[in-house]
Batch of 2 targets.
Target 1
Amino acid sequence: MPNYAQALTRAHEKFLADLFPGDGLLTSPEEMNAFSVDAGRVRAMPLAVVRPERLEQVTELLKWADAERMPIYPRARATNQVGAAVPVHGGIVVSLLRMNRVLDISDRDFAAELEPGVVTADFQAACAKKHLFYPPDPASVKTSTVGGNIATCAGGLRAVKYGVTRDWVLGLEAVLPGGEVLTMGGRAHKDVVGLDLKRLFVGSAGKLGLITKITVKLIPLPEASASVLVGFPTLEACMDGAMAVFHAGLLPSACEFMDENVLKVVRMGSEIPVHESARAALLFKLDGTGEGVDAEAKRLVRALEPVHPVSVVTGQGAEEEAIWDVRRDISPGSYRLRPNKVSEDIAVPRGRVPDLVERAQGLGREFGLPVLCYGHLGDGNIHTNVMFDGGKEGEEATAHKVKDGLFRLALELGGTISGEHGTGLSKKSFVGEQLSTAEVRVMDEIKAVFDPNNIMNPGKGY
Amino acid sequence: MAGDCILCGKCMAVCPLLAATGREELAPRSKADLCRVLAEAPGTLSESDVEKLAGLCLGCGRCAEVCSQGVNVPELVSGLRAAHPDFRKWLWKTWLTRARALWPAGSAAAKLVPEQFRPEKLGQSLKMLANLSGGPGLEPIMRPESYPDHWRGKTVLLFAGCTATFVQSRWLMAALKLLDGLGVEVIPAEFKCCGSGLKSAGFADEARELVEHNLSLWREAGKPPVVTFCASCHAGLAGYGQAMEAGEAALWADTILPLSYVAQGISFVVTATSPNQIGYHHPCHAGGDDPDKRLLEAAVGDLLVAATDKQCCGFGGVMQLTGGGVTESVNRRCWDALSGARTVVTGCSACITQLKASAPDGVQVGHWLELME
């Protein structure tokens, strides 16, 4: 690890103040406090925060930072839960919220160009006005930005049908340490020339360079959707139900799972139309043409009959959105159960999800802490929340023991310690258990090509 | 309460100040975290600097509405303001508490201050004061045609709010006319200011006196429904529940009703002779379900050409005096969303004050009640 600057010199301060006039530069601890932390709730204070509004400011900044060995921490809305945006080595936090213009939405190229600070839901709404669709849909879609989603390769509810953020990025413009601007890909939907550098940037968590412009693929906006919320008497019936739907030839745009503990949490905050005897639930979404959605919804309900669900509710329009708001409230709502949690997003091959859920719940019972299992059953990415009370002696340590068990379980089942959150600070120490020495070595060498002085988001895991 | 914030960032999706400025340090999450650090690590931050920064809050309450942890950032900010009284807050308090004497006079006095003497920061506030005269009002374009019977014979209290009571008596008259048409008997009562502006500015004791006065009138009248036609007053009254025991608080929550909710079922006929593009501004304090908008949509149909949704007018209460121009970018986004409208109506006296002071040339602003013949 290089010797990073521990404080700003007068020359540093002058350089930053000249490049970022007015409220584009923050140096007081009160103003910088917000930038010392993210949804992972680990904190470290930066030396300064800057807010670029145009490319030239970013190139100048990265030229200077590389020469000064000044850590750079890119940041948008900082909703990640693993501490990926926390400036653990001080340095400069670069807030991209003012680079937030949608530059073009083309209904001829089926592509859009935008800056990284555009809020994903706002972008989707702008696309929808042109009957176009950008599908990536992380639970934070109303709050997080497209740039942040690309840096973390955000997944989300619709990944089972539409894939994750990576599958929608056609091109990127990024500034490298030293100030060089790298333009990768473009508007062509197919492109096999050269190594796919833009894909390296997707999910790189700000460790290679600073993304300044984005080109994404769009598709026609589905004209209709319907959601079906199904309660099951047992966990086994629930898993059989999910399999029955896929085996009936249906590909829902979402297939979300909620276990017994999650149903309990949701009921503490709002009403949910799942029969009280249900021990697990699935929430499906179907989208497409009006006729197609109607037919598929009927086929889905029929496909579930052999597993005897205890309740089936089909919703469209506002009713459908209300159901989905309940799903989006699970993560923040989980704190109604205990004030703290260890939140993980392990993913396993789809066929191993029943083993994962059963053994995760077993771990919770073994250690005496509630473990919530929910999320993207359709793509094998299950969120596991180990709930605990930090005020009670030993509970936090126990929660981390459960977490360790969950990670090892995921790897044993042929899966990953993170399907979408990334590793940041909280999972950094486990990366070595999943990746081979050879993989890590190649990654280190690749990073060194882009960032030889390791100034980009240092201190975080791959 | 700040300690309950889990930094999930849901509040950032709805904060109009963050959207307009791109300043994450002004996000509700950031303010809750400032309060937490102040409490948990005293000495690391300057309390007065925290108060100044966190005080840049419009008090719109949208963040509190979406928070799964029950964190109420505007209330945290009120607490900080209470700990740091200063001249500008005193001025604001004086304006609010002496509304009867100062408001009509203020509007006249503000007009007399020569342009070149107006301090930069107070410019918008003076313009708002100047607009606090009754003025000619909007051209009426709709008339109630028939009334439903479900309110007939019932008695209510009418909480008119300071603006209607001291300045815009035509709103009061229009509201009384609608209630009369519905067959509702309005019990006379001398309510005082709802107190929310004072509480937000950090004058909790003064606000509490107003709350107690208003609640005593309600109790003396036999706890009937209380009808409001200002979203901010309504939100202020809704906050009274915190000071009541649970049973009475539940009754109170059920009894305070927007006039537009009571007016559901009235059918209107449009009487406008000339084309009139109406814009509707959704007040932050109207919350997610806005009966004013429903009433207007049903009444004027296609004449409604623009409406705000996420955009705040930028009023911001005491922040008008302390915010140093931050509210202007918020206000600009509001007018962007209302472009195309020649007449903008809303159901919040604070929004009306702010929108009147900032309206583009040729655009009129008023309460939707002014559209009523």
Note: Chain A has a mean pLDDT of 95.
Target 2
Amino acid sequence: MRALGRALARIVGKDHVFSSPEARLVYECDMLTHIKGMPELVVLPASAGEVARVVKRCHEDGTPIVARGSGSGLAGGAAAPGGGVVVGLNRMNRILDIDLPNRCATVEAGVINQSLTDRVAPSGYLFAPDPSSQMVSTLGGNAATNAGGPHCLKKGTTVNHVLAAQVVTEDGRLLWVGTGLREGLGYDLAGAVVGSEGTLGLITALKVRLVHAAESVKTFLASFASVQDACAATTAILARGVVPTALEMMDADAIRIVEDGVGAGYPRHAGAVLLVEMDGPAAEVDAHAGLAQEACRRSGAQEIRLAQDAAERARLWKGRKSVAGAFGRLGLAWLLQDIVVPRSRLPDMAKALGACSARHGVRMPTVSHAGDGNLHPLFCYQPGDEASLQRALRASDEILHVALDLGGSVTGEHGVGLDKRDKLTRQFAPADLEFMCRVRQAFSPRGHLNPGKVLPMGIGCGDLLPRVGPAEQPSSALDGGAWI
Amino acid sequence: MDLTLDQIGAWGAIVGPANVAADPKACADASVDGRIPRWVVRPGSPEEAAACVRTANDLGLSVTPRGSGTTLGLGNPPSRLDVVIDTRRMQKVIAYRREDFLVRVEAGSTLGRIDKHLAPDGLFLPLDPYAGPTRSLGGVLATGDQGPWRERYGTPRDLTAGVRFITADGTLTWGGANVVKSVAGYDVPKLLVGSLGTLGLIVEAAVRVYPRPPARACTFAAFHDRADLEAARADLVDVALEPDRLTFLSAGMARQMGIDARTPGLLVEFASVPAAVEASAGQWERIVTSHHGRFLGVPVDCWRALGESLKEPIRIKVAAPPAAMVAAWDWIATEAQQVGMSSEAVGEAGAGTLRMGLRGPTTPGTLQRFVRAARAHVRALGGFLVVERAPPAVKEAVDVWDELSAGQLQLMRALKARLDPKATLSPGRFVGGI
């Protein structure tokens, strides 16, 4: 490893290679802090060319590679439980080209999501995917996990906005996949690489779509006596032919935690709230906001608060976006779920959550992208209390299986990483996983790109992939500061 | 491999004798680029289809899927053509709940049939490829084709949440999810969509559907000057307007659709609540007027007519940066004229995808030179050109697909080799002879 370190230092400069345990400590996990794995080396290249040389050198050495952006991932995708080299891409943060006539931009992988929108906003454009981590997460990381966000209900997730990706292959070749146009040629390699969590190639740059900002935006908060009523309202809004830009739900516990934490002005005693945002042509937004409010009222809304200006809208969103921070003040630790159910099954899921919480005695406030059927229950436990942790784990696992029984998915936007890897056998048949394994082998014959992630061990051709030990049991709290 | 009665019997045992054809007429009807298959089999279920693929793969026979057959001319001539699997008996709706905004149907269902199923709930499937309603969903996904609705709703790539397909060795496989948002495992639907039946035979798909907007307004604006047309197009995409469809038409194409046009123009549709449609149309009118455009009357069923267009014996698809599409059309149309061909064009003007139908007295040699010149021009603009339909003699002389980088092609070949090692599925038709 020392020889490899020296070789990599010759590529990226010795100031950009970390080998001491102290310097590597921060790289042992991402925001899924209970699963750890420290790399043997960390390198921070400055260009795609350097990344390619680093990967090539590691390939010659037989050393696995883990790509990393800001480390705000929630599935353990950036941890290195098998050791190897972490390639941090944050120094590659240049916006290479803005092409407004063709509504696209070319960026290096380390560019922060929000900074691209900040750059094009004065011209009336934005980069649509807006994960809650957008102030810190990189576009390369967003692409690797196919990040969503509250507004992906109308505008789609990251993959819908990637026109091409520059990748470094397992053996260190640098190439663009995808045409960079809105039309494909050959297999959709860019579509496969996006969301593959660094297992099919290291993304070093992206060509992404930009969209024009809407003419009008309206946001309202509706409060309900119960989660069931809020679920019914969600269905009723969609049934009226309205597809909001965002349709978010918080339950009673989440509301109180946020109010205690940041005081966003949410109705403290409500059983649930919906945060609904519409954008588009002004007349459409007015009409749809009216329809959506009517749907809420008919579903038993107790109060509807329509933001009158941008400041009030920001305040309403502050409540939703402060969830993680507010939870941090409770002194509780939590396990985060990212399940999806068909939208028609939201009421069933709500019932299951309530029953599960009562049965296991686990506090589980829930925030959801209700419009997508994507729920984030937080299974709370006492840090250091093994029994309480085990209860939370059991409850979390049970809810995940309920989601699958309802026809859903184990992860909507956070990714598989290490966290959900072994759950895929519940969602997919062996033949389905075998197909994915073959895809991985085509891109990465040695399985040295982010080894042990995404695909479960011990299935079909998965046995050919290098084995990386099972995820460790949680040992410490996921303390506040994650973005959900 | 010899054609034996035993093999015909084998197909019959799987799909029933009535659903196997080996006679010259039926096989000729299923020909691809003039090549005639030995059998046409019509499975009635995904399980039957899987058994057919497994049998073919075991016997070393190639399998070429077909749906409605409208787009079988896409791609290189097949390098082998043994069994054509016709998916049209598989038409079941597998799962559908209105509130899910997702429908899961078998691949042989036509777009028209799916739409009929959704219409009572006020929903629709926003796919409008050329020859639209008669095309099968499986065929549309396999070709990745989409028409003007892409401006608002995206392409099959964006609309497909899950696919059930049969791998080369005959295994029924599922990829993706039954929900609109999932990142569990690899995005397998992305690989199947647009792969022209070379990685798997799609037998079922879960696709997103949308509420049908209550009002629509469709206008055609004609322009004398190409620069004015492009300026109006550029202005339209550079404001907050959200058209449903934004389509460039050559003058002749506009006339085919019943519009009394002498010059090319833009066919633009807004769809929303009535007040928004009216406001958007008004804003578009001001843009058109400021660029010296003129509105012409549009028949109500114009989009249906567009779907029936582009029937010329030669059809090319140009993908260009959107701002360069009109210029690319201008250059290619002029070049076609110089070699004695007439051309008509339809372009998705926000996306930069242009299709041109070509007709006229020309030799394969001339056509070959024309395609080379047009391709070079388009490539210089940052785009690429695909020959979507041409007589076999022409296809022998030009690469119907455009050139891919060596690195990309290597990855694509690696995928094919891992997923279909015996080259059972649609051999030879795809990029690089995959």
Note: The radius of gyration of chain A is 22 Å.
